[in-house]
């Protein structure tokens, strides 16, 4: 059994998590092969960059493709995943993550998940982040998860609907019942995508559990 502990000392986002999983040994070949099965209309390329920040080496993911302003609905993303050639395990995890985001968006906009149209989360890079994380977890054969409490940051952020306080409303809705930790850092430390991935996977939040560490990965976002 492989257990994965997320140490989110500076928050979490989808691209940070995917880069960390690849840095820990997830197969980029398997990742890129399965992502092609999504049949996305937009051409894209994944570029990996080793960076150093505050003396710490980490992997950063760049999703390179044509800029798109299309807004995908929850229903269209569900169809995209269900009709793809992805494995059933990857489909199940990816759909669970998108469902949490759709439920949060529906709650704060007073609509239903079926009628939710994603803006930032429906963009090409966010779809790749979420589906890519599901693929990477299958590559690493992870079966259980834990995480540190989450810092969320403070200040404000400009998104499709305008200027919003941090943490963003969708992020807070997803993080209901999940332990948070204080942080004085300005900016969005935990994104809706990062929050949803953890909420869908993790059942134990707290200190690192008893375990023998075999692999370590650092992701930069």
Care to give the gist of this entry?
With 221 residues, this protein is α/β, with parallel strands linked by helices. 37% of the residues lie in helices and 20% in strands.
Bulk shape:
globular
Count of separate DSSP helical elements: 7
Radius of gyration over alpha carbons? 16 Å
Strand order of the largest sheet: 1-4-7
Based on helices, strands and strand pairing, what is the structural class?
Answer: alpha/beta
Helix content class: 25-40%
Span between termini? 29 Å
Largest sheet: 3 strands, parallel
Unreliable residue runs: none
Query: What is the ordering of alpha helices and beta strands?
Result: EHHEEHHHEEEHHEE
What fraction of residues sit in β-strands?
15-25%
Question: Average pLDDT across residues?
Answer: 91
β-strand number: 8
What does it look like?
The chain is of the alpha/beta class. The protein has seven helices and eight strands, in the order βααββαααβββααββ. The protein has helices at residues 14-23, 28-35, 74-82, 88-109, 124-140, 169-174, 192-201; strands spanning 2-6, 44-53, 56-65, 142-147, 155-159, 162-166, 204-205, 219-220. The chain has a three-stranded parallel β-sheet. Strands 2-3-8 form a three-stranded mixed β-sheet. The protein has a two-stranded antiparallel sheet with strand order 5-6. α1 packs parallel to α5 (124-140) and α3 (74-82) runs antiparallel to α4. The longest helix is centred in the middle third of the chain and has 22 residues, at 88-109. The two termini are 29 Å apart. The model has no long low-confidence stretch (mean pLDDT 91).
């Amino acid at each position: 059994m492989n257990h994965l502990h997320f140490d989110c000392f500076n928050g979490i986002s989808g691209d940070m998590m995917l880069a960390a999983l690849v840095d820990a040994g997830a197969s980029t070949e398997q990742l890129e092969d399965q992502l092609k099965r999504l049949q996305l209309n937009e051409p894209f390329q994944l570029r990996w960059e080793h960076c150093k920040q505050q003396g710490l080496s980490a992997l950063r993911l760049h999703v390179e493709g044509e800029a798109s302003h299309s807004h995908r609905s929850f229903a269209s993303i569900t169809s995209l995943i269900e009709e793809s050639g992805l494995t059933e395990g990857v489909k199940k995890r990816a759909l669970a993550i998108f469902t949490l985001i759709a439920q949060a968006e529906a709650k704060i906009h007073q609509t239903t998940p079926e009628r939710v149209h994603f803006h930032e989360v429906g963009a090409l890079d966010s779809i790749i982040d979420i589906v890519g994380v599901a693929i990477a977890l299958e590559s690493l054969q992870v079966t259980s998860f834990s995480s540190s409490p989450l810092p969320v940051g403070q200040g404000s952020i400009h998104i499709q609907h305008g200027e919003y306080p941090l943490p963003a409303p969708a992020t807070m809705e997803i993080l209901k019942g999940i332990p948070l930790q204080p942080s004085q850092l300005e900016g969005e430390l935990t994104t809706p995508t990062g929050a949803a991935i953890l909420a869908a996977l993790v059942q134990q939040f707290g200190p690192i559990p008893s375990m023998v560490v075999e692999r370590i990965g650092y992701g930069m976002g």
